[in-house]
Amino acid sequence: MAARIQGIARHALSTFMIGETAVFSSNFEKLKTLLDGITAEDINLVVGTSKERSNGSYSKAPATHVSIFECPFFTLAVFILKKGCSIPLHDHPGMFGLCKVVHGQITVVSYDIQTEPSSNGKVDNFSKHQFHTHFKQRPVRCKKSIQTLDQNSETCVLTPTSNNHHSIHNFGTEPTAFIDILAPPYAQEKGRDCTYFRECNPPLNQVSTIVMDSCDSWITEIPPPLDFFCDTQPYRGPVVNLEIISQPPE
Ligand SMILES: [Fe+2]
């Protein structure tokens, strides 16, 4: 019988290989359901053993990337985030994503970009990624939301327009780990580079004209933060490769 992670990768391939067709939504929902059931044991992941803690074998990297599988249609990986560490506010331009916590607890702070009337009265499309460069370097209005997730939580989902800009924090007292599927993968040459942001004040000319509510927030682009970087660890779970996940389910 196929391992759970192999079934997830197989379904991810069939979901993202055909793109956003009529069946995409139901395929994506099924992928989320499959991911809801996965555990750290399913991928032989041991996070922060007492031995590792005591001998100081951890690197200084705030996060560790464990690649499980990648292809032109999606990436499947684990991120381990040390206690007290964060993945800074960043985006996934034009991408879908699924994030399932398998150890510890994370807090995801999301910023959904608001479409606003521009000064000429027309709707400004800067929330769409193909116009991403239009809003670089200037503050953008967002709706901010906060989710706390642990291994009992459902998979957190992002789309090109929802939860796409987010920061991820480990406020807990132990490392946390989550499985991450991104589709299509980041690809700088195709306009899918990762951009970093920070919260900022609203532009002065907007302060008096926009009614803010408690969820409103503004973000602006920043250079990649120098204090955030990942080291890597080998994947030790069931083998996931194109040959295995291209086969029909048993
Ligand atoms: Fe992310």
Automatic annotation (TrEMBL):
<dbReference type="InterPro" id="IPR011051">
    <property type="entry name" value="RmlC_Cupin_sf"/>
</dbReference>
<dbReference type="GO" id="GO:0046872">
    <property type="term" value="F:metal ion binding"/>
</dbReference>
<keyword id="KW-0223">Dioxygenase</keyword>
<dbReference type="GO" id="GO:0005739">
    <property type="term" value="C:mitochondrion"/>
</dbReference>
<dbReference type="GO" id="GO:0016702">
    <property type="term" value="F:oxidoreductase activity, acting on single donors with incorporation of molecular oxygen, incorporation of two atoms of oxygen"/>
</dbReference>
<dbReference type="Pfam" id="PF07847">
    <property type="entry name" value="PCO_ADO"/>
</dbReference>
<dbReference type="InterPro" id="IPR014710">
    <property type="entry name" value="RmlC-like_jellyroll"/>
</dbReference>
<dbReference type="InterPro" id="IPR012864">
    <property type="entry name" value="PCO/ADO"/>
</dbReference>
<keyword id="KW-0408">Iron</keyword>
<keyword id="KW-0479">Metal-binding</keyword>
<keyword id="KW-0560">Oxidoreductase</keyword>
<protein>
    <submittedName>
        <fullName>2-aminoethanethiol dioxygenase</fullName>
    </submittedName>
</protein>
